[in-house]
User: What shape does this take?
Amino acid sequence: MKNFSNSLSSIYLVVLGIICVQTGAAFAKYLFPALGANGTVSVRLAFASIILLLVFRVKIFGRKKSDYLWCLLYGISLAGMNLSFYLAISRVPLGLGVTFEFLGPLILAISLSRKYTDFIWAALAGLGIALITPWNNSGSIDMIGILLALLAGLFWVGYILCGKKISGKMKPIDAVALGMFAAFLLVLPFGLNDGVVEKMNLKLMAIGICVALLSSAIPFSLDMKAFKNISSKTYSILMSLHPAVAALSGLLFLGEKLSFTQSCSVLFVVAASIGSAITSKK
Assistant: This one.
């Protein structure tokens, strides 16, 4: 009974983390008019890395050279994922951006399995893509935004693969904090080029700190606590909720309404992800 209670509590923590991430993404869009996507990414990664480094007291200097190399590779994936994703949602609704970004890890999960049912999940995800593609060239969907979201998904795959590798070489929290700091240094030139320092004020700084807390520090801490009492399969299924929660967050905080076809696209990708997670071995 106690194990069930712990597992249920962990599920609540993961769901809360998902809500935090997508709420943070919605708040980030409020920074776009003033800072642009590049500036917003710089601010978010700056505050998130500082918060993680200080809260978890991560050692920066005096580490092995291999630690810095892996953190740099990890940071490149993280920087590419964040930068391309923020550029994507500056062009398309949050729900669609997350949906197409999520195709990256979904395709990775399906490709690592050899079950016939995975063809069903791949077909569902493909149907989601087909629904959103403007075959009649109507231009109702910003294809550059969609391509940027897909690029973010590709970087997400690199983030996952690099994260698995680095987790066996150093403490996960150290890897995330240092990797995020490396990502900040990588995207900083883009933010400086957009004049992020000159544009910054107390209001924008406060929103930036909220975005950093909601998108990084809080959900990561919740996940770390939940991992102790939740299976990988259950966690994967819960991660499948990201596109749907993003669509809801976009509606509530940004007034972004999806059409019926766009909503179906999101649901097909969510269904494909849940199905893939349920039928996986782990």
About this structure: Residues 13-278 form one domain. The chain has twelve helices and no strands. The chain has a mean pLDDT of 84. The first helix runs from residue 2 to 28.
